[in-house]
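USER:
I would value a second opinion on how I read folds in token form. Give me a protein, with the fold worked out from its sequence. Write it directly below this note and I will take it from there.

ASSISTANT:
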Amino acid sequence: MFEKKTLKDYDFSNKRVLVRVDFNVPLDAGRVGDDTRIRAALPTLEYLLAQGASLVLCSHLGRPKGVDVQFSLRPVAEYLDTLIDAPVSFAEDCIGPMAETAAAALQAGEILVLENTRFHAGEKKNDPEIARQFASLADVFVNDAFGTAHRAHASNVGVADYLPAIAGLLLEKEIQYLGQAIADPKRPFVAILGGAKVSDKIGVIRNLLTKADAILIGGGMANTFFRAEGYPMGDSLVEETALDVARELLDKAGDQLRLPIDVVIANAFDAEAESKTMGMDAIPDGWRILDVGPETIAGYGKVVASAGTVVWNGPMGVFEFPNFAKGTFALAQAVAKSSALTIIGGGDSVAAINQSGLADQVTHVSTGGGASLQMLEGDELPGLAALDDR
């Protein structure tokens, strides 16, 4: 049961609604590169418009240090205008007179996109005055930005102190899928964790050891576990400072945590490097692990095929290099073929499933890597906690 108020719990007729969206999308020469997050927000925006509301949209984009035109949301506003059947305008600030004037002029059925919230330093500090200024632009607040729900910022947490605060459709969907997967999964529950660093996922692994039936490890983080087991790792990425934690997790997990049994190694960190596949053993000097091998993928594939729930976060190898992305793409195919409830979270995992053309064959593709990791750790999300209870 979703415990926060949702769109169906409020009458938005003739209301001006401040919607926190996650429009932190890649821009290429001032054009939107990947519109996944924009499209994910459309159901909430269209629902509110159909209820007779006017919408003020706020979001961050990138990590600007103050006002920086390369991080302007204007191109995103222009792109949104091509996707939605409603007039879309843009305000050159997210607070202050320009934002206030533009918001006050909105009519029912119209959308205003505010400039990047992170152009103001107080946003990330959850400054109460910035939050109050956001709130002054609307009658009610809707948070639909799961991608920032693990942050306590003015535009997603502070503003909820001043307005009725409601969960959008995307936020509700994300919480329900991930919440169900963690709290009451259909078993066997299989978690797949990849990426570069063990340290980024220590809390996740500890929590999942109490919940998952199997945890499949890949990517650079596997190297640290191998080193903790005593394998020489050549030039492979290893977190030396995480070795004690890796040993602790291995001792606690037993057979529950599974490592690759074969790997693809390369003689340089380069897309065109010489490569070869080997069973897991001492990695020669001058060589490094860049992907999992075919026997590992076959084994992981069998585990996934028999699963009831699969959560995948992080690639199996150096996914950016085509020659070392085979493990990640093979796993994407295994997850897509599975009859389990399948949830993909994390930028590279999402990119892999999208590039494979398999996104429509998994149950849910999450829009928030950091937020999904925090949920997998079992921690409360500030952006969710701030919303009104039912």
Observations:
- The two ends are 11 Å apart (CA to CA).
